[in-house]
Amino acid sequence: MSARTVLVLGDSISAAYGLDEADGWVQLAQNQLESTFPDIKFINASISGDTTEGALRRLPVALDRFEPDVVIIELGGNDGLRGYPIKKIQENLQALAKLAKDANASVLILGMRIPSNYGPAYTEKFAQTFVDAAVTAEVELLPFFLEPIATDVVYFQKDGIHPTAEAQPLMLEPVLEVLVPMLDKVSTAQH
Fold first, then answer.
1. Stretch 86-112: mean pLDDT, rounded?
2. Digit-coded pLDDT (tens) for 136-181
3. Residue percentage of the chain with pLDDT more than 70
4. Is 171 left (phi over 0), alpha (psi -120 to 50) or beta?
5. Model confidence at 16: pLDDT above 70
6. Alpha helices, DSSP H only, in the chain?
7. Measured between alpha carbons, how far is residue 190 from residues 9, 63, 98, 184 in Å?
8. CB contact at 8 A, 62 and 73
9. FRET pair for 140, CA 20 to 30 Å: which of 96, 108, 130, 151?
10. pLDDT digits (tens, 9 = 90+) for 47-89
11. Are 148 and 186 in contact (CB under 8 A)?
């Protein structure tokens, strides 16, 4: 059985901002999946403040270097907070997914939402962007990554944006529900 590599391309939410890296959801995923997939390796290529555009510049090198079986894209939040055009965010997400698929990786997009003070039209279109990008790129989607914790301030650091260590396992659960079947397919395809 060959090793399975999962590349996480994200922003501060996946970079475990304000936490020990060991407490972040990416490391927790590695720890939790090692019993089922002893050869699994998570590469956390997340950078605080990163945007879909920044990731587009970084992804080709990461794909060459790590040759991942699965790429998890957790990006777009910073684009939304900066008011980037919805169409551009969607194009970038689709381009990221295409690059990963062209490198023979399965793709999971983790959708995001932004605060309602950006106005209902933008916030609704922003949330829909992830759905549209995943459908167009024909990849897996978790519609709202922070859904398990979004409505409870106790799960956020003082800044009100970044999840606490206690929030990480709750965020991880729905990711694993989508990711484990993807990893199973990878192992089936390798035999």
1. 97
2. 999 999 999 999 999 999 999 999 999 999 999 999 999 999 999 9
3. 96
4. alpha
5. yes
6. 25-33, 52-66, 77-81, 86-102, 120-137, 168-190
7. 24, 18, 21, 10
8. no
9. 151
10. 999 999 999 999 999 999 999 999 999 999 999 999 899 999 9
11. no
Active site residue 162: yes
Which tokens in the block code for residue 151?
A: 């409505």
Structure-token pair, residue 102: 């062209």
106 pairs with which residues across the strands? 70
> Is 79 assigned a catalytic role?
no
Reported confidence tier of residue 191, pLDDT bands at 50, 70, 90:
very low
| Pair of tokens at residue 141 | 């989607």
List Cα–Cα distances, 165 to 45, 66, 74, 161, 171, in angstroms. 19, 27, 18, 13, 10
User: Are 32 and 176 within 8 A, CB to CB?
Assistant: yes
What is the length of the chain?
A: 191
Q: 169 φ, ψ to 5°?
A: -65, -30
Q: Is 12 a catalytic residue?
A: yes
Catalytic residue from among 20, 64, 159, 191:
159
**Residue in 11, 12, 14, 46 annotated catalytic:** 12
23, 48, 132, 162: the active-site residue: 162
